[in-house]
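OP here, attaching both records as promised.
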Amino acid sequence: MRLQFFGAAREVTGSKHLITTNKGTKILLDCGLFQGIQTHELNQEFGFDPKEIDCVILSHAHIDHSGLLPRLVKKGFNGPIYATGATAALCEIMLLDSAYIQEKDLKLLNERRIRQGRPTLELLYSVEDAQNALAMFKRIPYQMEVSINDGEVEFSLTDAGHLLGSAAVHLNIDNGGEYVRLTFTGDIGRPGDNILRSPEAFPQADYIICESTYGDRLHEAETDMLGHLERIVTETCVLKRGKLIVPAFAVDRTQELVYALDRLSSSGRLARIPVYIDSPLAVKATQIMKENAEYFNPEILDYIEKDGDAFAFPDLHYISSVEESKALNDRKEPCIIISASGMAEAGRIKHHLLNNLENEQNTVLIVGYCSPHTLGAAIRNGDSVVRIFGKDVRVLADVEIMDSFSGHADYGEMLEFLACQNAERVKKVFLVHGEFEKQIAFKHRLLDKGFKDIRIPLMRESVEI
């Protein structure tokens, strides 16, 4: 049996891991988009023939894990895409949104390439390609055993606690008469998440493909997350009379912020200032979250029973239209604007940053991981000047960071997730979805816990197991 790594290899985007069994069955774990500066060409070619893939098993809906599914279909893939029901529901809005962004961004990119005398690039995929991909989804509940190729491979999903419907994938593969148990963690969530259930323990594995995003760090302990958020809002909107601009992923991170603000509002601790959720995708995602409350933890379910709605309070406004979004830039009064994307690489947030970064009254609040070379990372790292839409913009606004909203486990939480395993029985661990320096640090921590063979695969590396 062969494993090949076609993305998220010594980096954090483009998750794609290909299993080829002894009988030639090809199973693709995730099919993610590479994100960041100058990644369009990288997304053009897979490194394998999409027509040869028998099925895809999708860990969750984030675009760096699902975003190339429409291109896979466009290039000839014609098999099932297995995912939880919530993942499929989120992909219905996220892949269509991604297709729209592809079309818009390519137009600007090709105009620049023409000016440079370079050949134009092919559209990654269209809205029609995304719709074709969505038609191939097969919804699988957690714990259900699914058979592939007449029982050659069986797999099941367990709750990874990272995103609504996110899953770790557990495969039992006939490897020439000997069964091999392989787990792909997907992205590992955090125990004690404000909305979602904690990650589940999983069956003993022989091989593990494990994420390593925060392999070198612990999240700063947040003893009073609501108090921290209240302070930022008060200092920015009440004392400085400025705007609080929050780049946030439309799915999960935005809802976590709204839930936190809802609790502050319900307890009378939130100043009476307007809060704008400026993202059509976030509006749709919030509705999907409400419709899938069975994935929520008991604490938020109890809050909903008492409050009625965890995602609605006075002064909260959900915005979809372009006209309403543009009007926010002309607004002089204090307000909170939460807008996608979380890494500030696309979407309406770039316009809000362009219009508000050079005002000392304002604050930008970073609430999650930002890949290197993204606009969000530049702001998070303290760059004094950033480039937005080809213009140099001074960062005069305050920058605050709240990692308590992070959906990725830190190294302590990842080790806790892996503690259900007998390390001596795990033959190899492959670290993916992480920057190399962080993976080296996590490798040593895994060795300290008794895991014997830790590999950090290169892009397109092939491994026989």
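Record two, same layout:
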Amino acid sequence: MSARRDATALAIRDALVRHVRAYGAQPSTARITLLHEVHETWRPVLCRAPGGEPLHRDDLAVYRELARSRALHAFPFADFRAGFEVAHTAGLRACLAVAEPGESVQPVAFTAWGVRELPRVLDVVTESYLDVHRSRGNAPAARALLLDALLAGRAPGPESDAGHLVVVFRPRERGAAVAAGTTAAVERLLGERSGLLWRGGPATGELLVTVPVESTLQRAREVARDLAVDLAGAWRSRLHAAEAFGASPAEVPAALREARRTLRLVTALPDAGDRPYREDDLLVELAVARQPDVRLRLTRLLEPLDRGPDLRRTLESLLACGLDRQRTAAALHLHRRSLAYRLGRIRELTGLDPATPHGIQVLRAALCAARLDALPE
């Protein structure tokens, strides 16, 4: 392989240009520089791989410097990382090309060495690339990259053990038109709070925010609650919100999955408040969601309500108004007697009295079950 160093470097360069979008988009004059970089990064491989030695600390310096250069020139991080995988594959092909017929020891040894060492190289280039962006503060490109790192379970800053509260927001009226200036207002609001990382917003219909736990988890939750109120004003919409805590960067991906799972339950609530919910707040709804047979039986309880005008909507409004009949009547533009008549019909048709704790609890669970079935997974 050492004897074919130049040919191997050329093969790697050509593979990068063919298979990695950002390299292929570079002008042809840049390919001379790229070939030189391939030579520099391939040199430690040729030095250590034949003997099965791990890359030394000094060997990794060339990868750090290349990552720094790519970050400073705004080279797309995903393409940069992908380039190392493409280079490894092209190098393995070169190894196979020079192997004698029937010889498998060298290709197998090189493959095993690459499986062991490539993750180390990717860790080094990722950290070096991130370091450049950490120094650039809250610029959009830096923020996006740091959030990508966090959602992949990596620390977005030196505080590698710090936890993060993951909060997901969605408007209650999905698909509603976004007023002019709304996105800019949301961006300004988020930018005023230090330490937040975010993605999405009014234009995408979902906003993901991570809140660093700098002192206590309770304080981070207070920040999330205040943010929910302020965002609703900037977004000009009532919002559904859910949160989950990752005690370390490695736990953040699981926290995001939990927050989105919780948000689906929140969306099904007929009486969701204007705050971020936790999974522990919705244990009954979570149990219903996990039991298809129970969900079906609850949903069927509501079927008789379709015989009367707006009975289901009346029940939803009653819950949304905190069981306050005066507020419910006003929300539905009804006289209180008309509301009482409708609630009486709900009792007659379902056998459940919305004026009793048991009746309203079961009816609420039935509404949640019906809404869950209408939501995408």
